[in-house]
Write a structure and sequence with these properties.
The chain contains 30 helices and 4 strands. It is an all-alpha fold.
């Protein structure tokens, strides 16, 4: 009966209630009674028709059985045997408050770093996240890079099990955590984009050659964005076996987003043809003698350079130091630079300073090379000579080397209010929140000795000039990096002038609150 009544109602709606009356249900059931009451309200016909449609829809849904799912239930979560004890109620309350704050627009600066520290510290004390807080935590990690890294680092069987149940949580899984489905060919042909990318990642871990062969079968049909996503997964088990496909097929793709991924892969692949071409270009431009390093600029950025990912834009007005020369300088591996120059990095830096025109270009390029190839020795040697990008170089260093450099900067401190001084540059580079929060080594606290030295040096400053004072710039991130044992020293001994200036007072309040919270968090996780 509702089906026939629905047809009549649709017919009335199509021709209009002014041409066809709304028909009530035949007598004999509950639906008739309710529809009769609607008609009896003497409301306008249009409103009566809409209300009848809503009532019939509810009537049909109430009488329908829920569909039966044929998808088998997942295997139960394995026990977390030996993976830690659930944290105390006080520690759980801290974590819950951080999660809630991270989901609000007015969250404090560095909230993701505090969440990551909670996870890493909990693991150090043998504690785990209460199961009820895992879903909101993993949901946050899907959009917060530093939290995602911490979850990967601290993942246990429960976290990995949960990540398999929700596609948006799969970022936690390591390549070795995923299994290749026996039906991988069917999934590759008919699966969703997310399923195919997950499958490709699993294959890169289990059988890189098979993954590459599978991609070549559909490469021409893939969308550019999908091609770039698949290519990103080549970073897993990348080898020279992948180079022919990347060099001869993917690098010739007409879409820039695809070529950029290929260049990042091939540059980092030792022995790749692209890496060799970059080194050859650098060698053709650079001449070294006992007094200096000279640079000869090529006539132009030619087609072969453009194919290799070098961008022609950004040249100086007189084309004396074109932007694109920095690119292949930076993409030349450190060991190739050593071969080209025939001298160690310390001597290269000394000679670069003698060439006023090219010193900045050379130092910046070597900095890029150190970052791309994760060369700690180069980063350590370059940092004292850099004006920019110090945080990026610090992110390469292990915490002990990082602390050595900061101690040296504190000892060499001459004028804290000079924004170009080595001390100010190091302080800002070390604690620049915008960069440092996304650098793995900088998520580790500073050592106790360097934390105390930094505090003593900063407390000696009395300037309130927000444009020149590196202390005020550094304090928010120092609050997140300070060694836990230095909390008492951090909470006292500051100049009273800071609390009298509105700008400085806001920064000091944040610093004190964050240090106090971190101390309480550490104590709660030890319970």
């Amino acid at each position: 009966m509702p089906t026939e009544l629905w047809r009549q109602l649709v017919s009335t709606a199509l021709v209009g209630t002014n041409r066809e009356s709304v028909v009530a249900a035949p007598a004999g059931d509950g639906l008739h009674l309710q529809l009769t009451r609607l008609v009896a309200t003497n409301d306008c016909p249009e409103r009566q028709a809409l209300r009848m449609a809503a009532l019939i829809e509810l009537y049909q849904r109430a009488g329908s059985l829920l569909p039966l799912s044929t998808t088998p239930l997942p295997a139960s979560c394995p026990a977390d045997d030996g993976e830690g004890k659930i944290c105390s109620l006080r520690a759980a309350a801290h974590l819950s408050s951080l999660i809630q704050e991270a989901n609000t627009p007015k969250r404090r600066e560095g909230i993701e770093a505090l969440l990551a520290e909670w996870l890493i510290t909990a693991r150090g004390f043998g504690k785990t996240v209460p199961p009820i807080l895992l879903p909101p935590l993993m949901e946050l990690g899907g959009t917060k890079q530093i939290l995602a890294q911490a979850l990967k680092r601290c993942s246990n069987e429960r976290i990995r099990w949960l990540s398999r149940q929700n596609p948006s949580w799969r970022y936690v899984l390591r390549p070795q955590d995923t299994e290749v489905s026996p039906n991988y060919k069917t999934i590759w042909q008919t699966g969703s984009n997310e399923d195919r990318i997950q499958l490709f990642q699993s294959l890169r871990s289990a059988d890189p050659d098979l993954s590459r062969e599978l991609l070549t079968t559909t490469w021409q049909e893939e969308q550019p964005s999908a091609r770039a996503q698949f290519l990103e997964k080549f970073s897993i088990n990348l080898s020279l076996s992948d180079e022919p496909f990347l060099e001869e097929e993917a690098l010739n793709d007409r879409h820039k987003e695809v070529r950029e991924v290929v260049c990042r892969l091939l540059i980092r692949l030792p022995g790749s043809r692209l890496s060799e071409r970059m080194a050859a270009r650098t060698q053709a431009c650079v001449t070294v003698d006992k007094k200096t390093i000279s640079v000869a600029v090529p006539p132009a950025c030619d087609k072969s350079m453009l194919r290799d990912g070098i961008q022609a834009k950004g040249a100086a007005p007189d084309n004396s130091r074109p932007f694109w020369i920095r690119q292949f300088f930076g993409w030349t591996p450190p060991q190739e630079w050593i071969k080209i120059c025939g001298i160690p990095i310390e001597t290269m830096i000394e000679l670069a300073h003698t060439n006023e025109m090219w010193s900045e270009v050379l130092l910046d390029s070597w900095s890029v090379s150190a970052q791309i190839f994760n060369d700690q020795e180069w980063a350590f040697k370059l940092i004292p000579h850099m004006k920019y990008g110090i945080a990026a170089l610090l992110s390469i260093l292990d915490p002990p080397k990082r602390d050595i450099l900061l101690m040296e900067a504190i000892k060499l401190r001459s004028d804290i209010d000079d924004p170009t001084s080595y001390y100010a540059l190091m302080i800002n580079g070390m604690f620049d929140t915008r960069e440092a929060l996304f650098s793995k080594p900088l998520t580790e606290p500073l050592g106790a000795e360097v934390s105390r030295a930094a505090l003593l040096s900063m407390k000696a400053d009395r300037s309130l000039d927000m444009y020149r004072n590196s202390v005020l710039t550094a304090l928010p991130s120092l609050a997140l990096r300070l060694h836990p044992s230095c909390a008492d020293e951090a909470l006292s001994g500051w100049s009273e002038s800071y609390m009298k200036n509105p700008y400085a007072r806001n920064i000091m309040n944040y610093f004190m609150e964050t240090v106090q919270f971190r101390r309480e968090m550490q104590l709660a996780l030890q319970e």
